[in-house]
Amino acid sequence: SSFMRSLSQRLRQADEELVVLYEVGKIIGAAPPLQELLKKLLEHVMAGTKAGFGVFFYLNDISGKLEVKEAIGPGFDSVLDLKTNVNEGLAGAAISKNRVVTTNDLDTDPEFASLRRFGYERKCMMIAPLCRQDTPFGAILVANPCDACTFTAADLNLLQAVASQAAAAVEASLFKSDSDAKAKYDRHFFQF
């Protein structure tokens, strides 16, 4: 009875995780424009982890800055145009360490006490880097789990799986956006 409830709950959770990964795979396969891709990826990983806030970060190769490319949740508009140095803040920590960074209480976590704050920080967060050949080029942050005060190990695994699955698609979409912008620039300035 107790065992069956526990098993039933774990099976339901595994089913929810598979649905999220399936939906993420469909999104990636459709190859939507960059902003739509980022928004849908964030929506699905937030739904799967029951997060109330999410941010997608991208490391701009030209400026060397870590930029917010998409954000969802209360207060998202205050971070949308944020650009920071890559080694600053919690997102910078995840990218520079090239590992998932988690905290269940940012204000009391000694590991992050000295980090500069930029406005995207929440009490409970997980940030997973997006990597190209083991080199981080972005990160996905989820925060404020809706029905609990902390994220679970299953939430962490789901975030890592989505980040891993999404990295190639996000990189390809970023490359296409950059190529389209360069082609438009070339057409505009070299038409004579």
Number of helix segments?
4
Outline the biggest β-sheet.
6 strands, antiparallel
How many strands in all? Answer: 6
Average pLDDT reading: 82
CA distance, first residue to last residue = 79 Å
Structural class: alpha+beta
Which of globular, elongated, flat, extended, rod-shaped describes the shape? globular
Low-pLDDT segments, ≥5 res: none
Order of helix and strand elements from N to C terminus: HHEEEHEEEH
Strand content: 15-25%
Question: How are the strands of the largest sheet arranged?
Answer: 3-2-1-6-5-4
The helix content, as a percent range, equals: 40-55%
From the alpha carbons, calculate the radius of gyration and give it in angstroms: 18 Å
Could you explain how this protein is built, in words?
This protein is an alpha+beta fold and 192 residues long. The chain is 47% helix and 22% strand. It has a 6-stranded antiparallel β-sheet with strand order 3-2-1-6-5-4, sandwiched between helices. The mean pLDDT is 82.
Task: Label this structure with key terms.
192 residues; alpha+beta; 6 strands; 47% helix
Summarize the model shown:
The chain is of the alpha+beta class and 192 residues long. It has helices spanning 2-30, 34-49, 89-97, 153-189; strands at residues 51-59, 65-72, 83-85, 101-103, 125-132, 135-145.
Task: Spell out the blueprint of helices and strands.
Blueprint: H1 2-30, H2 34-49, E1 51-59, E2 65-72, E3 83-85, H3 89-97, E4 101-103, E5 125-132, E6 135-145, H4 153-189
Helix pairs in contact: 1-2, 1-4, 2-4
